[in-house]
Amino acid sequence: MKLRTSSKKAAPTPATEHVDAARRAQEAIKKDPESPENYTALAAALRMLAYSVRERNAEAADDLLRLACAAAWEAKSRSDPALISGRTKQEVKVLIAWLRTKNHLSPDAAEAVMEQFRSEFLDRALNSSDAGYLLGFVRS
Fold first, then answer.
1. Could you tell me how far CA 43 lies from the centroid of its own chain?
2. H or E segment to which residue 50 belongs
3. At residue 4, does pLDDT exceed 60?
4. Can you tell me the distance from the alpha carbon of 36 to that of 67, in angstroms, rounded to the nearest whole number?
């Protein structure tokens, strides 16, 4: 029996889609570093990538969530409190909930950790666009 070979490209996996979304957000930040929505998009992509690799590598997922926290908190800090978008509010809320659940923190302590992650991990979140780094999480 002869097997058919398909000339179609394989559909990208959800994880690679999230890696691509993270790269697009990083590029958008390079073009317009003042836009909070670009940081929110990066946080969302990193968070979704973390969820997609959680079962295979929980440690890598937590690392990605720290990067997402840094990006989300940067988005919040760049937003005018009266004009912060619903998307940014939601991303921050989800990531603070993760921190509080994982570490049994109060709301104020979780916000302090978000600020700590921002200072420690923001540069890495903004510059970790090489394929080896982000795809390493996918393959782990």
1. 3
2. helix 36-53
3. no
4. 16
Cα–Cα distance for residue pair 139/71, rounded to 1 Å: 23
Q: What band does 15 get if pLDDT is binned at 50, 70 and 90?
A: confident
d(CA 108, CA 110): 5
Which residues have C-beta within 8 Å of that of residue 59, sequence separation ≥ 6? none
Residue 104 to residue 72: CA distance in whole angstroms = 20
What are the residue ranges spanned by the domains of the chain? 14-139
d(CA 29, CA 127): 10
Indicate whether 129 pLDDT > 80: no
Angle between helices 131-139 and 36-53 (to 10 degrees): 40
* Three-class secondary structure of residue 76 per DSSP: helix
Q: Is residue 27 scored above 50 in pLDDT?
A: yes
Spatial contact of 137 and 49, defined as CB atoms under 8 Å apart? yes
Q: Token digits for 15?
A: 């994880």
- The phi and psi torsions of 116 (rounded to 5 degrees) equal -60, -45
CA distance 106 to 112: 10
Question: Is the model's pLDDT at 130 over the cut of 90?
Answer: no
